[in-house]
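Lab notebook, bench 4. We co-purified these components, and the gel suggests they stay together. Before we commit to crystallization screens, I want a quick structural picture of the whole thing.
Request: model the full complex, all chains together.
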Amino acid sequence: MLDNNIEITTDDKERAVLIPSPTTPARHTEKQTTPTQIKMSVRDVNFFYGDKPALHQVSIDISVNRVTALIGPSGCGKSTFLRTLNRMNDTIPGTRMTGTVKLDGVDVYQSIEDVSTLRTKVGMVFQKSNPFPKSIFDNVAYGLRVNGINDKDLIAQTVEQTLKKAYLWGEVKDMMDNSALALSGGQQQRLCIARALAVEPEVILMDEPASALDPISTAKIEDLIAELKKDYTIVIVTHNMQQAARVSDTTAFFFEGVLIEHGPTRQLFTKPNKKKTEDYITGRFG
Amino acid sequence: MNRLKFKSKSKVREFLGEKLIAINALAALVAIVLIFAFIFKEAIPIFTDQEIQQEASIAKMTFKQEFYEGRDPKWSWQPNSEVPKYSILPLMIGSLKAALVAMLFAIPLGIGAAIFSAEFASQRLREIIKPVIEMLAGIPSVVLGFFALIVLATVLQNMFGFLFRLNAVTAGVALGLAVIPIIFTVAEDAMTSVPSSLRDAGLALGANHWQVSLTVVLPAALPGSAAGVVLGFGRAMGETMIVLMASGNAAIISSSLTDSMRTISASIAAELAEVVFGSAHYSVLFYLGTLLFVFTFLINLGGELAVTRMKQRLQGKLS
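Here is the predicted assembly.
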């Protein structure tokens, strides 16, 4: 008999680091006391991959200018949920969705005339940085060009502003014509964020944006998120609960396709209302 | 607790295996070098043999010649005439013309079909399209030549009113049919191997399906598609049977694509079987073979370098 029947998953490792710190204070100043405006509201969403259910009756309100973190074990549906918000799941054949997703009160599945319009309003940053094999400039300009902006000066101006907003300008301003793939992993991911910002979205969805990065690059991304929420509404999926505690205002815990609990981050990590949430954040199951 | 007992790996076997594979790779290389050496060897008398140079020196093959006294000098390929004429220029122009038409016809169709199959076709449709187009490559060239000679030539002549039934357009289009599957297969593979994360990135920025295909997938698959075009051009230059049957085989110099023409490869195929061993004509045909070989080799080499550069540029290793 081999004695390695204790399986160590990524979750366990993260938890080992996490256990002493559920009380880590959030880096931002909390303003949960002021009433917030709802940016996106989701009601009774069910989602299926073929016959396999992935989300069950999910309802949640996403507040404007707040960072909402989605946490939960692998396969709990948090990424699937994120992708329903900008209809990226439409690209996967054989999927089905019921329920409503509203952006500023407008149903994004029924009333928006063109899905690409929605996606310019609800931008997305992916887990693995995916810059186009084009120049740095062309990467940031891409979203503008495909949406019909041809004014060269306007494009150049927006690219510069956007890169400044993503705190990347200083690092790349002398190499705008170089391939984006020559950048480091962390720079590539910040370029992807800049690329998403260029089309002036209102909501930014981030699917584990720092999971493939080293701690320093991760810190830069987290600082960036804290900065961006002044102007944008951010929804972030993360595997790293410390990260959720650091960057988010509210946290939603998903388990087996069900939204178990959604509340202010500090409260969810210190005094969760549900037993399952408590078990998860204290590391009793994964 | 028992530890697993691993068998130690045989060093000898690893050594032998490695060498065996190296020899296999080398064999292909040696074969190519030997073939080239043989063809070139048969062409050497053109450079050394006085008697043969009287009939066919490099200058005589390359420049305008006054074949009959008092008449205008010109380029002419008539090796079996009483005054043998060995100008190779008409043949080279013929080869290039046919290949040009073939590429003009095959690149848009091959790349277009690849975009459709890789980006727009449903899984089921794709499983039909891909093997069917690739089957085009399996049609023997003599069948394509026959088709061009009997059917295509008539159709094209009726459609465009060509003076000559067999011409560069007819031959080129038929040649294109042989080239399309090469371009299609290589380009389609390049497009399907573009990571879907790039497509997602494009869609998430508000691009539609068309824009993603043309502005993300196609540029990312450009090196692969270019490799397919280079391979296709090599095939178009070297293909023999189709042009032998469908080009009219008139070795004339003409810039018109609607005149009959003759290629290097067709001349070699048509004349080599009847040529007197060791004669000037024999050496010239091998010289033509050498030229074709060198030319195709250079095209492939240049193409390969261009593709490598494109790849490096995409990957950011080259600014």
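Chain A has eleven helices and ten strands. Worth comparing against the SEC data before the next meeting. Residues 162 and 225 of chain A are 14 Å apart (CA to CA).
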